[in-house]
């Protein structure tokens, strides 16, 4: 029980470590998000400050231009018209006033778009401090007043500058009343969302109308309550010093300032005048969105942790319950492996045995076949009926196979056909066929049909029988030649002696001549037997084929003419040569051509041809193919496999001994060659001899 629980405990520890790591990375990523937010807010603030600075600089330039106009020579009426044109051109100007050196008002122009009460709203006493400050600075220096006391919007400011020293009225001061709210419009965009508040201080350090009321109230109470808001105090200190940067206010202080229960990112920068004065600006943005996102992520992680923990507990219970079945499963796996091994071994055995095996389903359709049988059947016979496996077979043959399968499946016993001559494939052959019924619970492999091809075995048996006959002929030849040869010689001699004594005209002379002819025939047979029994390993040498073939043609030309046959000789190359004993090779060609002549009627054709055998060249120098063809009567199929047997002949009695083709086959095999026969009645016969080719010059070849 300990082993299944241990992995669960390890998984729980791993899960705890993962959760701790995720929280750590979340905290680190949150700080990175806060820093990124501060950078973005700082960039937005700097962009807005540049816009405000450009607007203020434009207003200052217009004020300096007004001073330069008043410094030019001209009448009071001309100066009034010029100031009127400037007032109408500068949209942010509400009024233009000129004060003399004695502080008395000399000119007052009010924007027609402003209320008529503007004329009397601000008196000279209200602007006296600003005029005095402008007179104390050099000409061109622009001073700004604090918010005018009677301005309802809180944005009306007085900008003043002294006239140049070379003016007609040197020491005079021109004052413009400016609605500063449009100039600070870019700052309003920074506080467009509810999570951001502005803190804007004027030149004199007092909060402007853009400042959020809560921040303005807290800022005014910093001298008394500054210890409660250290973050705002540090921010105010940086603003008064004209600094730029970012500052983070903690959650508790943000709640006191009315900015929500999250940290606040404060970005600040001054709006500077050319004369060195500045309007400090700060934006305070809450990180409540980041905090909400973090809480949601923690909640989801907690829920996931609970689900994973539940899964692990369930998995632990499952492991404990499954542990008791592990051994049984392992045993089943081992058993399955053994079965798979046996199946693989069986498949390999079936694929590599020479016997054909065909599997039939319960519906008598082919479900599988081993390699030996698949090579002889058409492609894609799986799923087809039994007739598809043997398309060359006749209907009675297929019926015998189906009856055999039916009998085997009916009584559940193996049924067989032994040594049956069946034409299952392209050529007839002898087969053992077995129908093996299997378990009825396996419908895919319900019955096996095992097909043993006995054709090669029968051929080997024929070759063995022929070899035994040849050995018997060899033994008989020695005995017959010794026991019969001498008496026959004596009888022949006596018959010739009596024939000479009686004379050619004597009535018994013909009978004595017949005795001599028959004794000569027996002697020739004995000589062939002796030659057959005494045949020794050939002393092979390079024999050119072309001259030898033409010499055979010359030897047999008269015989062909006598029988009115056409004898053709064709050699593919003049350089073609075989490794053979010349006399024995000539004997082979003469015997084959004479047999072909014997098979033809008058007007027939016999053809002797020779070429390199490109289809079958197992030796180092290849094989030479020699074909002897005729268009004679042919050989019956039942006699094809007997023509090379000793004493077998299809000729009439007294016209052949049956040893000619036996000698030919023996000589060919003795030289390491092969002989093949292809014949059919009324079609003629072709005898093919594959003879080892002669070695190239400088090399030797020995035939054993």
Automatic annotation (TrEMBL):
Keyword tags: ATP-binding, Kinase, Membrane, Nucleotide-binding, Phosphoprotein, Transferase, Transmembrane, Transmembrane helix, Two-component regulatory system
InterPro entries (alphabetical): HATPase_C_sf, HATPase_dom, His_kinase_dom, HisK_dim/P_dom, HisK_dim/P_sf, PAS-like_dom_sf, PAS_4, Sig_transdc_His_kin-like_C
Family matches, as SUPFAM superfamilies: ATPase domain of HSP90 chaperone/DNA topoisomerase II/histidine kinase, Homodimeric domain of signal transducing histidine kinase, PYP-like sensor domain (PAS domain)
GO molecular function annotation: ATP binding; phosphorelay sensor kinase activity
Histidine kinase domain segment(s): 479-695
Record's catalysed reaction(s): ATP + protein L-histidine = ADP + protein N-phospho-L-histidine
EC number: 2.7.13.3
Transmembrane parts of this sequence: 6-26, 297-321
Pfam families to which the protein is assigned, alphabetical: HATPase_c (PF02518), HisKA (PF00512), PAS_4 (PF08448)
Enzyme class: transferase
PROSITE patterns: HIS_KIN (PS50109)
Protein's UniProt name: histidine kinase
Organism: Myxococcus xanthus
